[in-house]
Amino acid sequence: MTSREQFEAWVSGQYPCEPMEDILLKVGPEKERYHLKLIQRLWEAWQASREAVEVELPSLKQIDSGERYVWSDGVFNFKEDVIESIRAAGIKIIEGEQKNG
User: pLDDT at residue 13 above 60?
Assistant: First the structure.
């Protein structure tokens, strides 16, 4: 799901009784702006909040060795370290089994 699709799903939840085609109507030559100024401002804030998110991932110093990666300070599970870094930034992680199962 794209960021815009996530935003529009969120807006739909905020205004459940309103006709969504009116609230989410886009205007402009390429339909890039929302007709309602409030929704456009919310979209701009949504985008800014996404741009502000930064995640510093662990630095991989050497090549992987099977399912584990060799780092300068020892052997760690690279996937788990990346997930920990992303969660530390306040971003929710949904792994494949959890999402589909």
Answer: yes
